[in-house]
Amino acid sequence: MKIDLTILQKNELFSGMEQKDIESMLSCLGYNVRKYPKGDIVWHVGSRIGGFGVVLRGQVQVIREDYFGKRSIIATIHPGGVFGEAFACAGLMESPLAVSTGEASEILFLQVEKILTTCKNACVFHSELIRRLVRMLAVKNLTLNKKMDFLSRRSTREKLSAYLLSEYSEKKANPFLIDLNRNELADYLSVDRSAMSRELSHMRDEGILDYWKNSFKILDFYGLES
Q1: 215 and 177 in contact (C-beta within 8 Å)?
Q2: Angle at which helices 182-189 and 156-171 pack, to 10 degrees?
Q3: pLDDT in tens, 31-55
Q4: What is the mean pLDDT of residues 18-37?
Q5: Which pTM was predicted?
Q6: Which of 163, 210, 209 minimizes the C-alpha distance to 188?
Q7: CA-CA distance, 140 to 133, in Å (whole number)?
Q8: Strand partners, 210
Q9: Are 17 and 27 in contact (CB under 8 A)?
Q10: Sheet (strand 82-83) strand order
Q11: How far is it, in rounded angstroms, from Cα 47 to Cα 53?
Q12: Reduced to 3 states, what is the DSSP secondary structure of residue 34?
């Protein structure tokens, strides 16, 4: 299956590499590509893993479910993004989280052992690939720490405020788009969907923000931070 290499160039592992070099690296590493319809399960909790996925098309969500079936979205992965690399590098044989598709998706899977073990051909890019993988894991850790900051806030309003300010700071625009719909946002922040919707309505009535679907505009930064 022909791969859109421009998507891989968006990934930290392959950014800055010429397409011919990416093709050589993929040939060295070995890979497979799979297509999934929207809403399909890529990994169940307990699925056997040995590698990680790179999203080529669509969108996937990494999901945690508790004993009672309550879902929490850990991350939303877009084209060029990866999932499962921390589990694979940690040597886990089974996934502790589920992964599902938010859209029809195409995913490239790489075996982590072939990245971490220098090949017999001594590819010029292999050591660099390992360094980049380590950096990716560090960035992922920072992202999870940011989410923990959101979840540590006491109220639904405080969680929403922290999240929206973070998104505004990252997107550097006002209004700005978020990647999650209402159900997904409630899952991500681990709050009740109805309570979150009421809080958003209150914040709009108070002139703190305005929104339409997944577009938000902050009107009163002081009110959002207080």
Answers
A1: yes
A2: 110
A3: 889 999 999 999 988 888 878 899 9
A4: 84
A5: 0.65
A6: 163
A7: 11
A8: 217
A9: no
A10: 31-36, 105-111, 51-57, 82-83
A11: 14
A12: strand
- Runs of H (alpha helix) within the chain: 5-8, 19-29, 85-89, 112-116, 126-152, 156-171, 182-189, 193-205, 221-225
Residue 94 has pLDDT above 90, yes or no: no
Give every CB contact of residue 47 below 8 A, 6+ residues apart in sequence: 94, 95
Rounded average pLDDT over 86-103: 84
Residue 226: pLDDT band (50, 70, 90) is low
Structure tokens at 208: 């703190």
**Judging by beta carbons within 10 Å of its beta carbon (0-12, 13-18, 19+), is residue 33 exposed, middle or buried?**
middle
Distance CA 133, CA 194 (A): 40
Phi, psi of 172 (to 5 degrees): 55, 45
51 Cβ neighbours under 8 A, 6+ residues apart: 84, 88, 109, 110, 111, 112
20 burial (CB, 10 Å; 0-12 / 13-18 / 19+) is exposed
Q: What is the DSSP letter of 70?
A: -
Higher pLDDT, residue 120 or 49: 49
Q: For 215, phi and psi rounded to 5 degrees?
A: -105, 130
Buried b / exposed e across 105-132, counting CB within 10 Å, b at 16+?
bbbbbbbbebbeeeeeeebebbeebeeb
Q: Which amino acid is at 67?
A: Y
Decide: 90 and 52 in contact? Cβ < 8 Å. no
